[in-house]
Amino acid sequence: MTVQAIETVYKGYRFRSRLEARWAVVFDQAGLHWQYEAEGFVVDGVRYLPDFYLEELNTLIEIKPRKEEEWKLPPTVYMAGKMGARNWRNWRPSSLPDVSVHEEIEVFRIFDTNGRDFFYSGPFGDIMSNHSFLHGLDSAAWCYEEEVIKRSFDGIKSSDCVLVLIDQTDVFGTLVEIGYAKAWGKKIFVAVVSSEEEVPYGEWFKEFHEMWFAIKCATEHKLFIKDIPGAVDWLFDMAGISIRPEVRLLSSVASGLSKGWSIIYGTPGEHIIHGSLRLDPYLTGFTDAGRHARFEHGEAP
Fold it and tell me: Does the 75-238 domain belong in CATH 3.40.50?
């Protein structure tokens, strides 16, 4: 059986779906000037036409129905590994906002630029340090060791799985995190990345051979040669966190045009938003108008 969206006319525009028209009503109520399907693009050979452009926010908008699986909560992950300049989280720079170890927060939801959706449970550092997630005796968080340790252990306990990236040999805190997660029976996925192109010593790279015991505690592990992005993708795949192709398309276009982007899934008031811009504050108090708009008798909602 084929299900087709109902084309809807509103303010002289013929929208491809009633859902798009409802969001046009919301934008109007919020005082946001919009353009509908203003310009198309080709991304890696794929033709792509964003739904809306919000002028005041310089932001491209895509509207999608909210599928049944999107009502389920995503997994909660603890991301273990070095927290300095080579920190593997830097491969997803928009994923982790600055959150201090001192803030009263257990987990927070992340939508990254590849469309991954998950809850992050730690670790947390101190925003006063050179890197917002750096913690340890050589950082501004040195006087908060007990708090950092407690928050890290609490984050592991509240997680569904622990993702570990090892690309250096002095990851002493990471080894403790692996052991603690193992003791709590957590799923542990370890990616080991060698910085040198060398033949593995037996099963292990020579530089990480002494870590075999900790790495063998993992539910699954995999070795990579000079490929942190590949290791990161594998870790998220192991956690069951997939990439949404529409997010990759829109974020690529927006980045090339120096614009913001957001994808809205679902009916106004029952929606979720992925994006580089926190769009919800601009829409608060206006979604009911779009949700209850009636288009059956003309253009007026």
Answer: yes
